[in-house]
Write a structure and sequence with these properties.
single chain, 465 residues, Growth Hormone, Chain: A, 81% helix
Length: 465
């Protein structure tokens, strides 16, 4: 790796880490924000949901725009938007402007994440160097989620929730100044036209999907709002598929989507993100509602998961070499993650279980990031540089949607089991619901891992499709 490549890698990893921190840093401060800005209880969820809606809804669009106009331009524009939105978010004094700032932060994430990943994959050729870069990217991604939760709690308690926004401003300015010096201007330009009908239908469909799933977590899967939103998502996404079949320059060429490396890589990626976010949610409930730990103590214990995530990212490229390919690493990560998550089914209500739970969660976090690296390498391999924006846009979409849907799905299973155990004590019913949901989580991960093993081709074979 040359000195310039090293500096580019540090720049791109810094941007991805900042975005990952952004995703979780405000979650801890939601109750405080609600009190200060007079949010109603039912509207608190929008502090997180508005970010998720815009981040997931527009990631594919901006990934494709990065292919057309250059990833460098989209990356810098996204950083500028993130910096301005963060500054305004920290200065607001009403709920509406705060939600607008969160929407803008989500849009910035939809711009910077696929563009940054496209710059990373085009800066390093396929092989060990790219695998190493994507491994470090996975480590920074998961470490950012963990650090965001811890940092959000500390900033809110010591200073103010507003610093969860302000902290992005100096980082954003630094990245905006340094990025033009390091990132090459000579990206591939196709000079084509943007598929407007495809962009409108896929963005609207993804927003409806994420909104419907978020509504399910708040109101239930049978709620009218949930059903209407999910039905609209299905109609819009089917329309998108039909448009892509006829478009002369489609937003997402079906030839690319039909590659096994892209299809099964993203299926595996979706499973690992769903499994990890659901595990975090269920362990949080377990530590607080069953074992009786405080919110601060619970947050600090997740530092163990951050260590596992970092080690997973650092060592994943070696596993690619040892196991003979990225798809094998994706499968292995999913299987280990599934087994370690499923083993949490046996956790009991005594505090002595804490050490076993944290040990299994550490291993699961390690396997999760190993699977992320396998997913990223598999889903972006075998494609030319001018399609890396699309490939990374798809992986970003997979990540954002999966993070959003994991909690509602497993929460529905846990709640159903808790209600079914109505003859038990509250603590016993809660433990039973958590155990069943976490077992289901583990079984899904193992099942997807086996499917990817059966149907996904190794990187070399995928490149020849």
């Amino acid at each position: 790796m040359t000195r310039r490549q090293t500096m580019v890698l540090f720049l791109l990893l810094g941007a991805q880490f900042t975005l990952a921190v952004d995703f979780s840093i405000m979650n801890v401060a939601v109750p405080v924000i609600g009190r200060e800005l007079h949010f109603s209880q039912e509207n608190l969820q929008w502090i997180a949901t508005t970010f998720a809606l815009s981040a997931a809804g527009f990631s594919l669009l901006f990934g494709r725009i990065a292919d057309l106009v250059g990833a460098r331009k989209v990356f810098l524009a996204g950083l500028a938007l993130l910096t301005v939105a963060s500054l305004l978010g920290g200065l607001v004094d009403a709920s509406g402007p705060l939600l607008a700032a969160r929407v803008a932060q989500g849009l910035a994430t939809a711009m910077v994440t696929p563009a940054g990943l496209a710059l990373l994959t085009t800066s390093f050729p396929e092989g060990p160097l790219r695998d190493r870069a994507l491994g470090l990217n996975g480590a920074m991604l998961s470490a950012g989620f963990t650090c965001g939760a811890i940092l959000g709690g500390l900033l809110t308690d010591v200073l103010s929730w507003r610093w969860g926004f302000f902290i992005n401003v100096p980082i954003g300015l630094l990245l905006i100044v340094v990025a033009p010096m390091l990132l090459a201007k000579g990206e591939v330009r196709r000079g084509g036209k943007l598929d407007i009908p495809g962009a409108v239908t896929v963005s609207a469909g993804l927003i409806a999907l994420v909104y419907g799933i978020s509504a399910a977590g708040e109101y239930g899967w049978a709620d009218r709002t949930t059903l209407v939103s999910l039905a609209a998502a299905v109609v819009l996404l089917i329309a998108f598929g039909l448009i892509e079949l006829r478009a002369p320059e489609p937003l997402a060429p079906l030839r690319v989507l039909g590659l096994r490396s892209v299809t099964w890589g993203n299926i595996g990626g979706a499973a690992t993100f769903i499994g990890f976010t659901a595990m975090i949610f269920l362990i949080t409930l377990y530590l607080q509602d069953v074992l009786g730990y405080s919110a601060m103590s619970t947050g600090l214990t997740f530092g163990v998961l951050g260590v596992g995530a970092f080690l997973g990212g650092v060592t994943a490229p070696r596993w690619i070499g040892a196991l003979g390919g990225s798809s094998a690493v994706l499968v292995a990560g999913l299987l280990v993650q599934g087994v370690t998550v499923g083993a949490l089914y046996f956790a009991g209500d005594a505090r002595g279980w804490l050490y076993a739970v944290l040990g299994l969660a550490f291993l699961s976090s390690y396997a999760h990031v190993v699977a992320i690296v396998g997913f990223m390498v598999t889903a972006t391999s075998g494609l030319p540089n001018e399609q890396q924006g699309l490939a990374t846009g798809i992986t970003t979409l997979t990540q954002q949607v999966s993070i959003t849907i994991g909690i509602p799905i497993m929460s529905a299973i846990a709640v159903a089991q808790i209600r079914a155990a109505k003859d038990s004590s509250v603590e016993a019913a809660t433990l039973h619901g958590i155990n069943v949901a976490i077992l289901a989580n583990g079984l899904i991960l193992v099942a997807v891992g086996l499917l990817v093993a059966l149907f996904a081709k190794r990187r070399a074979a995928a490149a020849n499709d």
